[in-house]
Design brief:
alpha+beta; Beta-Lactamase; five-stranded antiparallel beta sheet; 52% helix; 16% strand; elongated
Length: 666
């Protein structure tokens, strides 16, 4: 009966706090995780994984299309270039033919004479037909035209006046050929060959003109071979894309002015039809190709449609070049990928619903036991430590309940242990407070002494000024000045001590030998005056330290060794290193006056001086200890007593053991 009531309470609670329950969270978390994983999977499969070599289907498909466009563009470029080279070769062979050169040389004087006498047109044609040279020349040109089948007509013209000597078309003898723009380059600019693709002035038909000079026996250009080629048949066949580039594939040819040479497959963006040699295309691949560049690009075409394009430049002569663009619409290229994404989303959505249903079943079984455990936790929160979880199972919830019971058993022990730790921390804090009070007292006491001196001598100075005693005034001022200097020195060294832990320079690898030699140069005068011998261990290791701070440490040790050397027959200082229980210990040893063991710890305190009459403030060794502590080490002194010398030792933490410090004030 109680179990049923408990189950009912659990169900009621589940209904009230469904959106806060574990069940609802499991639905949200698992559902969100599955959807995110599905999205990431689809995106990574489509577009690749960043910072890896896996590029995804999108880029792979795009690369494949670009390779295909490149192959098609290269093939069409080579075919066009080869075709033009064949036509140039035909023109070169004809213009250099001995038969043509000899016949032209014999006919040219006769034609010029007839034209000067006013004989032109049909009359000139009739007169020339009587000449054997004319008949042979015309027959030869007609044979060439018929054999090759690519030439619309072939003409030979006089370079002096542009009149046509002979042509494969009747009735053109004596006509003016200077109307062709390219002809003037042969007659006036000295070109051997001119290639031009333009409209024929006589009928407006697009033609490829190849004009070559014909030289006289004395090597002077006196005639020109003009070959008219209708390129529509070959160029249109070459530019035809067929089914290899899909339904939207297109190849187009442009001249150096980015004007289309052939008609476009589609209307322009505004619906109009572009006219060859009049419409200047603005699409980037066409502009690049006309400028002499080659490559691939994803951009927009003349319709404003997104395309993938390969562009090539066909260099025919030093002055003539064409641009070739082969392209496909991106909408067609990536249509299979978009369809694939759609079906993957459909399948993924079905899997997501199945996953949510499975999650609901699992969560219902799990949350019942968890809810019971939650009720037990609430009773413990209210102070009932005697309650225990009554869940017995071998799954994670049962393990959690067992662990919870064990936790309750240990709570009291933890409470006791915590009280002990609080007492220990309190005692430690009290010790720190006592040390701070002692530090404050010491600082105030030592700073007060110069102030008392200054105040006393100010009173005496006042009296001496009244008595006008110049000698005593001078002495009083000197005492005041010395007391102020001492206070200033105390304040400077206290500031240095406070800054040791805050201002940490850049640490670097430094040889202890280099540091020792650097310090010896700083105190060289003191060492020479006392005749102290200094020995440096040649095998001192390399340390990872703040170089400037370690110079301070060694300088303090060496200056103290020199200052308290005493009267020795052979004074010496030794700088070296040793191993103590696997730890590197560095030391500065002297044979000076030594230190009694009871003072070994005191000398590192603030303002502690064994000889109160000696120079200094007693802060030096306190600064040394602070520097060593900042470097993760420790410092101490070894001495057997008076007259036995002293050894100041210190350690430095290894690089990997370096403690971290706040350098924000550096």
């Amino acid at each position: 009966m109680n179990d049923k009531a408990t189950d009912n309470n659990v169900r009621d609670s589940d209904k009230k706090v469904f959106f806060l329950s574990i069940q609802s969270k499991m639905l949200i978390y698992f559902g969100s995780a599955f959807i995110i994983i599905l999205i990431l999977f689809v995106l990574s499969e489509m577009f690749g994984v960043p910072f890896t070599n896996f590029k995804g289907e999108y880029e792979q498909h795009q690369s494949e299309v670009f390779r295909n466009l490149n192959l098609v563009a290269d093939l069409k470029k080579e075919r066009l270039k080869h075709w033009v080279e064949e036509r140039r070769g035909d023109a070169r062979v004809l213009s250099e033919s001995t038969m043509i050169r000899s016949r032209v040389a014999s006919l040219l004087p006769l034609v010029n004479e007839k034209i000067v006498n006013g004989v032109t047109g049909n009359e000139l044609q009739t007169e020339l037909q009587k000449e054997l040279s004319y008949q042979a020349l015309t027959q030869y040109l007609n044979m060439v035209k018929t054999t090759y089948g690519v030439y619309d007509k072939i003409q030979i013209a006089n370079v002096l006046n542009g009149s046509i000597i002979t042509s494969t078309r009747n009735q053109e003898s004596g006509m003016d050929s200077s109307q062709y723009d390219a002809f003037s380059k042969i007659t006036h600019q000295g070109y051997d060959e001119i290639i031009d693709l333009d409209k024929d002035p006589s009928n407006g038909v697009l033609k490829l003109f190849i004009i070559r000079a014909i030289y006289s026996p004395d090597d002077k250009a006196h005639a020109a071979l003009i070959m008219h080629i209708n390129p529509d048949g070959f160029i249109k066949r070459t530019l035809h894309t067929g089914g290899g580039l899909g339904q939207t594939g297109e190849a187009l040819l442009i001249n150096q002015d980015v004007q289309i040479i052939t008609t476009l497959k589609y209307p322009l963006e505004d619906g109009t039809t572009a006219i060859p040699f009049e419409y200047q295309i603005k699409a980037r691949p066409a502009v690049f190709a006309a400028q002499g560049q080659e490559g691939i690009i994803a951009t927009e075409d003349y319709r404003g449609e997104a395309v993938l394009a390969a562009y090539r430049h066909i260099r025919l002569t030093s002055e003539l070049g064409w641009g070739l663009v082969v392209k496909r619409d991106q909408a067609e290229v990536f249509a299979p990928l978009r369809e694939s994404i759609f079906y993957r989303i459909v399948v993924g959505s079905i899997c997501a619903f199945l996953m949510l249903g499975l999650t609901i079943l699992i969560s219902r079984n799990l949350t019942r036991s968890i809810r019971r455990l939650s009720k037990t936790v609430q009773e413990v929160e209210e102070g009932n430590l005697a309650v225990r979880a009554s869940i017995i199972s071998s799954d994670e919830v049962g393990l959690l309940a067992s662990s919870f019971d064990s936790m309750l058993n240990r709570v009291q022990d933890w409470n006791t242990e915590l009280n002990k730790q609080v007492k220990a921390r309190t005692a430690e804090l009290e010790s720190k407070n006592i040390e701070l009070e002692r530090y404050t007292y010491t600082v105030s006491h030592d700073l007060k002494s110069p102030l008392v001196t200054i105040k006393g001598f100010l009173g005496m100075l006042e009296k001496d000024i009244t008595k006008a005693d110049a000698e005593r005034i001078k002495r009083d001022v000197s005492h005041i000045h010395n007391a102020a200097d001492k206070m200033n020195q105390l304040l400077d060294e206290l500031l240095e001590l406070s800054r040791v832990g805050e201002v940490v320079g850049t640490k670097e690898k430094v040889s202890l030998n280099d540091l020792a030699n650097e310090v010896l140069k700083l105190v060289e005068g003191q060492i020479k005056n006392l005749g102290v011998q200094v020995k440096i261990d040649p095998d001192l290791p390399v340390m990872y330290v703040d170089r400037h701070r370690l110079v301070e440490v060694l300088q303090n040790f060496i200056e103290n060794a020199v200052k308290y050397m005493g009267r020795q027959s052979e004074s010496y200082i030794e700088i070296g290193a040793r191993q103590d229980n696997g730890e590197d210990v560095y030391y500065v040893r002297d044979n000076g006056i030594g230190i009694e063991p009871r003072y070994h710890e005191n000398i590192f305190g603030l303002f502690n001086k064994l000889d109160q009459k000696s120079d200094g403030t007693g802060i030096g060794l306190a600064i040394v200890r602070r520097i060593i502590e900042v470097h993760g080490g420790r410092v101490w002194v070894e001495s057997e007593g008076k007259g036995k010398g002293s050894t100041f030792c210190f350690t430095i933490a290894k690089k990997r053991e370096e403690p971290e410090h706040d350098n924000s004030r550096d």
